[in-house]
């Protein structure tokens, strides 16, 4: 809990550092010229970290989620020091893809990974990461994927409701490998040499907790306690908290936690409406967010919220998360055979986006979003409804 208490002081020091750095910038009233020196005593700026960029809205450092279309919906990317909560679809088919895209983006940019799971060995998860698409090959693969999925019905000219014509178009195709965020081929696996060259840490719950472990009275489950200790050790030992800035070049820690809140983690919130560990999950998120706020790290969590019976717990989990994205699959529902949804595999709900340094959160202006998994690409698009006019 000490990490939470120091959150305000670290945020204040970070703000003063940014203000000091901004004074050295050339204003619009000064003549532009070559830089006098590339060496600067102020040290490297946060924006110089590979795979990051400052937000155009508030200057907050951003990382890509691995899906450029999702980055656009979140205001440019996921802010460093925040939690992205993915509400799993009913059969947990599409949420693992977003989880793996986030990790794959970290490997491509040279970020450090921390993968935690109670179901699957983190080493096996890394072996299933999608392969990146770069440059001309990326453009070729995308064009081929679009062509293979084009249907005769898509060539029919239809009238679309006017309000959907005014919505911004989502990015679904590659532009350049040098851009912020990359595209990935879901049909291929990440090259082994990239995985071997990456720096990653794995937390596999069955290996961390033995059956003979003595459980001390605590408000957290043993799994959550062990995971928090593991995350805290990685942050402090590798200098992601800024305590050892001269130790090595600054980098980003990407944390991925899979199926949090499920019975595999020793939590009973999915089994009973008022379980004995009903507050364990919310306390875990509270401490985790304190650790993230004081470090160069970003976290993605997948959670089976559709199994949580207590709606009050879901509301608290949403409050303790910075970004909340829900996936609703059409599998097993009436929409699966509905012709209005034949071009999509499910809906995506942007339930909450962060408004940092404020007490409230924003809501996305773009509604009616749908996703589809093509042969190679996972895309997010604005759902289009057809509006037929009756003619006599």
In short:
With 392 residues, this protein is α/β, with parallel strands linked by helices. The chain has 12 helices and 14 strands. The longest helix has 17 residues.
CATH topology: Rossmann fold
Largest sheet: 9 strands, mixed
Q: Total helix count?
A: 12
Please tell me what the overall shape is. globular
Just give the CATH class: Alpha Beta
Distance between the termini: 71 Å
The radius of gyration over CA amounts to 22 Å
Helix content: 25-40%
Average predicted local confidence, pLDDT = 77
What order do the strands of the largest sheet run in, or round the barrel if closed? 8-5-9-10-4-11-12-13-14
Give, in order, the helices and strands.
HHEEHEEHEHEHHEHEHHEHEHEEEE
Category from helices, strands and their pairing = alpha/beta
Q: Let me know the number of strands.
A: 14
Q: Unreliable runs, pLDDT <50, ≥5 residues? A: 1-47, 149-178, 386-392
CATH H level, superfamily name: P-loop containing nucleotide triphosphate hydrolases
